[in-house]
Write a structure and sequence with these properties.
about 270 residues; alpha+beta; about 5% strand
Length: about 270
């Protein structure tokens, strides 16, 4: 009897035991779950360095193509000032302050010195065009001096100086030079006519001065970088009080170009 009870008693083994834990599966037959990372996270992220590398490569490619196509510039025909050694040297040295006598030494006669010209007391380096401003050049008379007046009037012999006083007259109609003397007119109307003439004359001179400023500004843009960047500012002309001297008359060419009536003023 005892032997039969022993045979009928259920046996337990390590295989039949199942201990459930919070982290265990409820079924031994269930396969463990594998968590996959999203595909977007598994890709390589683009960093700022990668963007800079691409842009740098495109820039070098553009410069290389520009040099082989233009055979001169890596900026497609444009040469900025910072690519010129003379510009870098001027920036390191700092601005100059030259008297007119000192400025005259930079007219291209000395090959060891740069070529300077001045416009409205500002000095510009024009060494990049010795065929224009150097000895024998078409505009050599501008080099080594401030010839702002000549830039406006076009008188390249008489007006090679920087005095702009009275230049606005070349834009004032001749009919406004003489005060009207109306005859056979009541005093009230004559007074009105003289007042209108005075206002028109002051207005014409004001517009003339504005025109002069516009012309000087156009030339400044040409020498202060411009489209090609070959000219650049280097300093200022040092002047003494009263340097202009007596007021100058308009040169013949400028006087002949004056409009005769107000209707001719542009």
């Amino acid at each position: 009897m005892a032997d039969s009870e022993l045979r009928l008693r259920p046996t337990t083994s390590s295989k039949s035991k199942k201990i459930l834990t919070p982290t265990s599966s409820e079924s031994e037959d269930e396969e463990p779950k594998i968590h996959h990372r999203p595909e977007s996270l598994s890709r390589t992220r683009i960093t700022v360095v990668d963007v800079l590398r691409v842009l740098g490569g495109l820039f070098l490619l553009s410069c290389t193509l520009s040099y082989f196509i233009t055979n001169d510039s890596v900026f497609w025909g444009h040469r900025p000032s910072f690519t010129r050694p003379a510009w870098l040297k001027a920036r390191i040295r700092g601005p100059l302050l030259l008297t007119e006598a000192e400025l005259s030494k930079y007219d291209g006669s000395d090959p060891t010195l740069p070529i300077y010209l001045a416009l409205n007391s500002s000095i510009y380096d024009v060494s990049a065009s010795p065929h224009f401003y150097g000895p024998g050049g078409s505009y050599h008379f501008f080099a080594g001096r401030d010839a702002t007046r000549a830039f406006v009037t076009g008188c390249f012999e008489e007006d090679l100086n920087g005095d702009l006083r009275g230049v606005e007259e070349m834009f004032v109609p001749l009919e406004l030079e003489e005060q009207p003397h109306p005859r056979n007119m009541p005093e009230g109307r004559a007074r009105t006519a003289r007042g209108r003439w005075k206002v028109d004359r002051e207005k014409a001179y004001r517009k003339g001065r504005e025109k002069v400023k516009e012309m000087v500004e156009q030339w400044r843009q040409t020498f202060d970088g411009g489209k090609e960047g070959k000219y650049f500012w280097v300093g200022t002309v040092k002047r003494e009080e009263g340097w202009e001297g007596p007021k100058k008359l308009l040169c013949e060419k400028a006087a002949m170009s004056r409009p005769k009536t107000k209707a001719e003023v542009v």
